[in-house]
Design a protein that fits this description.
Elements (H helix, E strand, L loop, with lengths): L1 H23 L4 H13 L8 H17 L10 H18 L9 H21 L4
Amino acid sequence: MMNLLLILGCSVLSGQLTYTLNNSLNLGAVIASSLVSISGGLLIYTPISEVLRETLPLVIMGASFVGMASEEIATRNRIIILSSIFFGILFYCTGVFFEGFGGSLGTTAAIAFFASLGFQQLVFKKGF
């Protein structure tokens, strides 16, 4: 359970930070995702458990793909937060299931983002 909470926390932080760097600071999607991913990669040098040292950088990189969305599509932060939570849950539950589908992290991020957009349409009948 603790690993799931760490995965969700890192996912939300990563997605939101990438979205902010991308849209508020106008760094662009690729540079924003790269900065967040490189920062997450530094976790391999920290004294945390080996499982988390291998898992959290992947979560951070994958969730940064969610944050690459433009403001025209994700008009509010809530869609990024919801997508990041979906990404964390999918990552936790599927692991390497999507490996070979054009990149498991990107595929999982896309599924999470599209699921959030669909959820938004079904529940709120309008944008967040």
